């Protein structure tokens, strides 16, 4: 079977790498016969290029498909097959709902989904889809705000309840946590559903390749 390369953006914050490692461990537990590797697009080690092998299937541990998925990853690992990113996905809405419950949200009132943001309109569309999926899961209105790129900015919204559409702790997560909302969920983190989605992306790509 081809290697499964989990590709994350990376961060100078060691908590970020710890989350990615935990996701990889869960994928290995679910698929013990698969060679599961981890690479970072930035702030490694290891870099994607260091761990990529020809024929591997790369699953972006990213929550939207912007520049990193469409350009950066193929440039760093041209001999791998790239799947869809793990987000958006209805299962991530379940994970975010769990994080909101852990943060003490009582289920009342609108929610703001806080994302890092991107200048890529396709990535912004992915974030809006994630907000729609979360709204369907929670049964409340969910709007979008950003901390890095895109409008509106979280700092200008003044939300009461914030769902963090971020994979792991780091600079962006710290900005979300400091936004002043009454309830702010933790990042999605190593929720078991992240590993489930990543493995599904891998197996689906294998099935698609087998159909040709």
Compile the SSE list and pairings.
Elements: E1 4-8, H1 14-30, E2 36-40, H2 48-51, E3 57-60, H3 67-76, E4 81-82, H4 90-102, E5 111-115, H5 121-138, E6 142-146, H6 154-157, E7 161-165, H7 171-177, E8 183-184, H8 192-210
Parallel strand pairs: 1-2, 1-3, 3-4, 5-6, 5-7, 7-8
Helix pairs in contact: 1-8, 4-5, 4-8
CATH structural class of the largest domain? Alpha Beta
Work out the strand percent.
15-25%
The number of E-state strands comes to 8
Describe the global form: globular
Largest sheet: 4 strands, parallel
Summarize the helix and strand pattern as letters: EHEHEHEHEHEHEHEH
- Using the 3D structure, state the CATH architecture of the largest domain: 3-Layer(aba) Sandwich
The tally of domains stands at 2
| Helix-and-strand structural type | alpha/beta
Taking all residues together, what is the mean pLDDT? 94
Main sheet strand line-up: 2-1-3-4
Spans where pLDDT lies below 50 across 5 or more residues: none
Q: What distance separates the N and C termini?
A: 17 Å
Total helices: the number is 8
* CATH topology label of the largest domain: Rossmann fold
Portion of residues in helices?
40-55%
**Rg, Å, rounded:** 17 Å
